[in-house]
Amino acid sequence: MGRRSFGLLFLLVVLVAVCLASIAIGSKEIPLSGVWHGLFTPTGVEDDVVVRELRVPRTLLGIAVGIALGVGGALMQGHTRNPLADPGILGVTHGAALAVVLSIFLLGVNSLVGYIWFAFAGAMIASVLVFLLGSAGRGGPSPVTLALAGAAVSALMNGLVSAIVLLDQQSLDAFRFWQVGAIAGRDLTVLTQVLPFLLAGLFIAAFNAPGLNAMSLGEDVAKSLGVNVSRTRSLGIFAITLLVGGAVAACGPIGFLGLVVPHVARAFTGPDYRWILPYSALLGAILILFADIVGRVVARPSEVEVGVMLALIGAPFFIFLVRRKKLVKI
């Protein structure tokens, strides 16, 4: 077995261990016997309800979202050739946020399940708009034009969100709950609604990996190898939209995971995206569950949402990355 294959197997073992810890550990202390009872021989007591209806759906959603954001981040850094890119650079996050705020402000939607489809639709619309703007001109879409279009669309949508939430207190209160980024309080209904989109995004991402390897050598080299650069980039953007749009719709914006995970994966795999993507998927699931477990423990009996915990982890890494890559000078 090769080193990278062994690494994947090791990450799978770690993920299983973290999943078990996610089910066993929480703000409410449940003994291991109670966890076992709740999983396999439930009788409806309080501990069984906590395990089966709260912690198991939370863990499954964390796995799905972690995989989606990890793979989405790796694709985004590959297609933009920017080591500091994260999935939000295409405006996906801000598009979802604007759609959520509009659904609250105009339609009075006030349930998490109700937000999902609006958030996903907003993410898709924003991504399409960025791609169209980035594709305008003779050269078609390029890493630079996509990044600039994403920054412009994100700024516009962020301004609209700020204007609406300042005008309407109800929109502000509901938006703050969604904006923090969390996997708590979601049942399996949320996961089942976004899972088909996440699976489709993962399938497209796997198909996109060989072409992305060629494009990492330069677009001219990729074309000489027979790669259709425009089609490869379009598929990559579509996969990012499905993965990140579904994750953001389900849990709200969760920052830094899509930035941090691909760099850790690349340290083990090298530049081959056929390995970076599965490593990023497993590392993303492990990191989000680990952050969620820590958030449950550090503020008992309350909890710190996973979006906040990942920001605490990701911000120092971001600073380290900028300094190591010498992208800024002090």
Automatic annotation (TrEMBL):
It holds the Pfam family FecCD. GO terms for molecular function: transmembrane transporter activity. SUPFAM superfamilies: ABC transporter involved in vitamin B12 uptake, BtuC (SSF81345). It is a multi-pass membrane protein. Coiled coil: none annotated. InterPro entries: ABC_BtuC-like, ABC_transptr_permease_BtuC. Keywords: Cell membrane, Membrane, Transmembrane, Transmembrane helix, Transport. The keyword Transmembrane helix applies. The chain crosses the membrane at residues 88-109, 115-134, 146-167, 194-214, 235-256, 276-294, 306-323. Gene3D superfamilies: ABC transporter involved in vitamin B12 uptake, BtuC. One of its GO terms (cellular component) is plasma membrane. The keyword Cell membrane applies. It is found in: Cell membrane. One of its GO terms (biological process) is siderophore-iron import into cell. Belongs to the binding-protein-dependent transport system permease family. FecCD subfamily. This is Iron complex transport system permease protein. It comes from Lentzea albidocapillata. The lineage of its organism: Bacteria, Bacillati, Actinomycetota, Actinomycetes, Pseudonocardiales.
